[in-house]
Write a structure and sequence with these properties.
Blueprint lengths: L6 E5 L7 H8 L10 E6 L1 H11 L6 E4 L10 E5 L14 H20 L4 E4 L6 H8 L7 E6 L2 E5 L9 H4 L2 H19 L5 E5 L7 H14 L3 E6 L1 H6 L8 E4 L2 H12 L4 E5 L4 E5 L16 H25 L7 E2 L2 E5 L8
Parallel strand pairs: 1-2, 1-5, 2-4, 3-4, 5-12, 7-10, 8-9, 8-10
Antiparallel strand pairs: 6-7, 6-11, 11-12, 13-14
Helix pairs in contact: 3-4, 6-7, 6-10
Length: 345
């Protein structure tokens, strides 16, 4: 019996930005329909408006009320905003921000209920992380991980002012981030014995002592983590290639290095949550809205990343729930297996 295809929820993002352009262009490639059953949380009317404004080819769409009714080989649409929502290309408005939030909340409800398997959040000015933490009842803080092939950069703190970073970093919280990153590498990326590099923060009120203490605590818990490393020398010497992931202390420390080294569009994975959520790491780009200048590459990477993580989690769950029994061989008769149904003496 064939397994059900993965249902991929896609949040519309800001209706006045480039999100619908990315969605339309990504699914203009019909091969994408072979990888998943896509379900857009947004508005079929707004999708049609963007398609006409951009002069793009029509896409086979299907309006549904529930994710369970989604069909294959088409772009399924769940309308979550009113017909009267006005589209003002390039102009962020309270109404367009509210529409993005409404779509995110509805999609997260379906993700939590299991009617969709993964969620991809198109660009908007709304940070999906706190909403996701609230809707999924996550007991631990989530962990943003930037992905580009085998280069993974996690952020210990969110996009907050640098002056507030020190107050957010404690031995306990930082240790938790390191352990969460290790767990994600094993479960979500199938890295058996992950090696993690931890970057240093400039000494402020003994902050480096906190970083070192967190590394020691995580090491004592069985994590292969090393540091703290000064960011400038670490990346200048390509030392990131020696590790399975790097944990940066704050947003710009990780983002600047990551974007410089990858020099291409990429995606975020919101790790340490019970459900799979990804988002393209690109701005809402209101200045490009309606101009047909945006590439869907980052959104496609976010979709591909979500599908891969779903498959990895499924394989990890099956492996741990049904582990292989040990095999024993008699000496001098290596090709003869003993009866594994007998209890050991």
């Amino acid at each position: 019996m064939n397994e059900r295809m993965i249902r991929a929820g896609i949040c519309q993002g800001d209706t006045n930005g480039i999100s619908y352009e990315l969605i339309l262009k990504m699914f203009d490639n019909t091969h994408v329909f072979e990888t998943c059953i896509p379900i857009v949380y947004g508005s079929s009317k707004i999708l049609a408006y963007h398609r006409k404004a951009l002069d793009l080819q029509p896409i086979n769409t299907n309006n549904i009320n529930r994710a369970e009714d989604a069909g294959m080989n088409r772009l399924n649409m769940i309308n979550v905003v009113g017909e009267d929502l006005l589209v003002e290309l390039g102009n962020p408005t309270p109404e367009s921000a509210k529409a993005a939030d409404t779509a995110l909340v509805r999609a997260l409800d379906d993700l939590k209920a299991g009617t969709i398997d993964v969620l991809i959040v198109a660009p908007s000015d709304i940070d999906p992380v706190p909403v996701a933490e609230l809707k999924t009842a996550n007991e631990k803080k989530s962990l943003k991980i930037l992905i580009n092939d085998s280069f993974r950069m996690a952020l210990a703190t969110g996009n907050v002012p640098l002056a507030k970073v020190s107050a957010l970093l404690t031995v306990e919280s930082l240790t938790g981030k390191i352990i969460a990153l290790r767990d994600s590498l094993i479960r979500d990326f199938q890295v058996t014995f992950p090696r993690i590099a931890v970057l240093a923060l400039n000494p402020v009120d003994g902050q480096e002592d906190i970083t070192s203490a967190a590394i020691q605590a995580a090491s004592a818990a069985g994590v292969l983590c090393f540091g703290p490393y000064a960011a400038a020398d670490f990346f200048a010497l390509d030392n990131h290639r020696k590790f399975d992931a790097v944990l940066a202390m704050y947003h710009d420390q990780g983002m600047i290095a990551f974007k410089t080294l990858t020099n291409e569009e990429h995606a975020f994975f919101i790790g340490n949550l019970p459900h799979i959520i990804t988002t393209p790491n690109i701005p809402t780009a209101f200045d490009k809205a309606g101009k047909n200048e945006s590439s869907p590459e980052a959104l496609h990477k976010a979709l591909h990343l979500a599908l891969n993580i779903y498959s990895n989690r499924k394989a990890n769950k099956e492996m741990n729930s049904n582990p292989l029994q040990k095999q024993y061989f008699e000496r001098g008769s290596d090709n003869e297996k003993l009866d594994l149904t007998q209890e050991e003496i």
